[in-house]
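Morning!

This is the sequence you dropped in the shared folder:
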Amino acid sequence: LTTVMLLGLACIIAGVVLVETGSRVEDPD
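The structure's back. Tokens below.
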């Protein structure tokens, strides 16, 4: 993997985590 690919994966993972956290805060289930 190249540095650019690693940065891209990091951004995607961070985005997913933020979305999941936000959805949990808005609608705790």
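Headline: The longest helix spans residues 3-26.

More detail when I'm at my desk.
O.
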